[in-house]
Automatic annotation (TrEMBL):
Organism: Methanogenium organophilum
Biological processes, Gene Ontology terms: regulation of nitrogen utilization
GO molecular function: ATP binding; enzyme regulator activity
Residue stretches spanning the membrane: none
Species lineage: Archaea, Methanobacteriati, Methanobacteriota, Stenosarchaea group, Methanomicrobia
Annotated family: Belongs to the P(II) protein family.
Identification of the protein by name: P-II family nitrogen regulator
Amino acid sequence: MKKIDAIIRPEKLDRVSDALNEKGHYAMTVSDVHGRGEQRGIRLQFRGKEVMVDLIPKIKVEIVVDAADAEEVVAIIKDKAYTGENGDGRIFVYDIDKSIQIRAE
Ligand SMILES: Nc1ncnc2c1ncn2[C@@H]1O[C@H](COP(=O)(O)OP(=O)(O)OP(=O)(O)O)[C@@H](O)[C@H]1O
Ligand SMILES: [Mg+2]
């Protein structure tokens, strides 16, 4: 099994989620997070002054799938979360040892 953590733009969540659903990848955990990447935040104009915003709001989507499905999930997220601008996000893939369903015998 693989775990895919995708940090994406909040406004891209619906597109990503719908596309994953269409391909049968229903299970996911979604959180509001704040982060920064290679540009170390962004400069914004606020009341005529330049303000540095250090940590930018993002959405983290966590998905655990069979290893064979990981590439497809990554490809869907990459396609649906893309704008081509800085800050589109980042995808991390991990190996998973176990997934235990609590209600199962
Ligand atoms: N090395 C990292 N470790 C942990 N989180 C990261 C890392 N790089 C990016 N992130 C997370 O991903 C979010 C989006 O990052 P971002 O899209 O700016 O990545 P980037 O590598 O700077 O790419 P780009 O050049 O397209 O902006 C960040 O806000 C942060 O939450
Ligand atoms: Mg960046």
